[in-house]
Design goal:
300 residues; 3-stranded parallel sheet; binds glutamic acid; globular; 14 strands
């Protein structure tokens, strides 16, 4: 994906996004009473001892998302609404249960603890499926395939991972890039922070030379600051995203996989992709066909 093509278009996306928010988006409004009832009657009711039943009883599903990574999970500065690709998928899962989504901020390092302690029912937070995490939680089938890239100021001499030796590179604590950078750039100094917005600030004020993480997150930084660019060259990694679910809850995993399968096949995935990514890159993409097993194998 070429950043030169992304930057102006994504800046436009932000402006249009704000414009739409300012005008009020009727589609986002909750359905009127009658419609809501009609929807609710179409929703399968689950036994109370299942996670789905417990969520239905509560009337809401708590979903851990990012608040600072457009276009996947971010708080619209104008409306205060939480928006993005991950958020749209979360809304679809809530809708399939006939409940309201409650989006809770989940940064990279607290996604698994939040599932373990029940702060959230589900994580949709740009979370890569890998073997290590799969030992601690359940994952849905992959719902998006990102790639690992490097972001630098436009006038930087850093052209790729081989130039990171002796530089300071920012990434998030608890992200896959802690390992990736140690392996692929062993002579770089790592600056590990809680949230990606801190990396953005650090590169903007010159405290770090580069930021490394998923392409979609770095693109969000370019939306906010077009003096930044992605380095060219091969991606560092492939990062298949999965929904995170509490360890052992295979029933809920199967439910989420069912929603995801429909979301991919009935056109909603393509719609969300087009809305948040595709229309600005002109790079069509099909919903991922990679299986969970393949995603786990990729990391081994
Ligand atoms: N997808 C990577 C991960 O799950 C990086 C992005 C993030 O930190 O959320 O670690």
């Amino acid at each position: 994906m070429k950043v030169t093509r992304w930057a102006p278009l994504l800046a436009l996306m932000l402006v249009l996004g704000l414009f739409v928010a300012a005008c009020g988006d009727d589609e986002e409004e909750p359905a009127a009473g009658g419609e809501q009832q009609e929807q609710a009657s179409q929703v399968e009711e689950f036994p109370p001892e299942t996670t789905m039943g417990r969520i239905q009883e509560a009337g809401e599903i708590k979903i851990g998302v990012k608040y600072d990574v457009p276009p996947f999970g971010f708080q619209n500065p104008q409306s205060g609404d939480i928006e993005g690709f991950d958020v749209d998928l979360g809304r679809a899962i809530a809708e399939a249960l006939g409940v309201e989504p409650n989006f809770i901020e989940a940064i990279s390092d607290n996604r698994i603890p939040f599932l373990e302690d029940g702060t959230v029912d589900l994580v949709l937070s740009t979370m890569t499926i890998n073997a290590e995490r799969d030992m601690e939680i359940e994952f849905s089938e992959p719902y998006y395939i990102a790639t690992g890239r490097i972001l630098v100021p436009s006038d930087s001499d850093i052209a790729g991972v081989e130039d990171l030796a002796g530089t300071t590179v920012c990434t998030a604590l608890g992200s896959t890039y802690e390992e990736t950078l140690k392996e692929q750039a062993p002579d770089a100094e790592l600056r590990l922070v809680d949230s990606y917005s801190e990396c953005l600030e650090l590169i903007q004020n010159g405290a770090v030379d580069a930021v490394s993480t998923d392409d979609v997150i770095l693109t969000g930084m370019i939306i906010q600051d077009d003096t930044l660019k992605l380095t060219e060259g091969e991606p560092l990694t492939t990062e298949p995203y999965g929904a995170g679910i509490k360890d052992g809850d295979t029933e809920f995993k199967e439910f989420v996989d069912g929603v995801l399968e429909e979301y991919k096949s009935d056109g909603r995935w393509a719609e969300a992709y087009e809305k948040w990514v595709g229309q600005y890159t002109n790079e069509p993409q099909e919903p991922p066909t990679m299986t969970l097993e393949e995603a786990i194998e990729l990391s081994q």
